[in-house]
Amino acid sequence: MLATREKNIFRIVAEVGNNRPRILKYWVRTMLPDGPAVTFRKITIQGTSRSTAIAQAVEVSHKIFCLCDMTCVVDYEMINNSFTKLAEAGTGVFASATNVATKRIAMCRIQSRTCLGRKRGAMVTTKTLTLITVVSFVFVCSTSVLRAAPPPGSKWKPIPELTDEFEGKKLDAKKWHDHDPGWKGREPGYFSTNNVAVSNGMLHLTARVENLKDIPKGYHTFTTAAVKNKNLVKYGYFEIKCRPMKSKASSAFWFYHSTKESWTEIDVFEICGVGDKWKNVYHMNAHVFHTPTEKNHFDKAGKWKAPFNYTDDYHVYALEWNKEVIKWWVDGKVVRELKNTHWHQPLYMIFDSETFPDWFGLPDKADLPSTFSIDYVRSWSRVE
Q: What residues form DSSP beta bridges with 45?
């Protein structure tokens, strides 16, 4: 399934080769309402005929649409051989797709939400050079679905250094540490780099029952994982699509930075994936440990109970942070809002799993290993 789900207009640029079986190569191009187009890299799908290739493109774009909260216009440009002009370099994050099957376009089911695609009309034109046909479809969705873009009402630009689709076979070392350089984990769980992996277009953080040799005193029995971005950021909209692990070892997405002058933290979420008391609870927080004007630690904690189990499926979680307000988003809805009184320090983004013996309790060994999987992280800053 195509991982890109952005904005409200999508273009699939497709090349059908002359070889048999035919190869469909396409790009997803999002047209930002108030900004430049964003071109994503090509994806290849096998097709036995031209009609099959077109059907696959239709199916893929329908799935994209089903993850959008607006009506989407999708253009199919069937290209013969040359695609140079249409594959110009763009900005933004990459997309990927694997094993997209040819199915009927009548209905698809994404994230347990059903969207109905209706062909509003089609236009076929003939152009010279490489362009063969352009077919336009408009799809209408029957329900509100996942947000995968910054909130409307402002102009936004991507933050590439805080954006990753986790393609390839390893973590991008230009952007990420595969550990936390300033912390070894919450005892007794030790952050092990062996528990960080990138595969199948996702980042995976795993907790295990494990005793490692030559680690600091206090760490034993469990190993966990941490991934920390190498770039500081202040304000923006930060979104991930993920599935937390099914364990009392936490799954967490947060921001922090500690200096002699200031130490603040914003927790997008800390999730315990098991136990009737915890499994549906979304824990959010904002900490002040010290600043030039605050000498004592305090926090502003909040909770939200979800109508689903976090570990059953992938959902979209986001933080909107500006100088006036901090908002927590889940699947396109604001679940908490906090006036920003103290959180104006540039922070680092981090994903991790920790043991909390005094909060969630230690993990049940029978639940491990368990994995926190992140499909993507996408970040934007507001254009003032």
A: 24
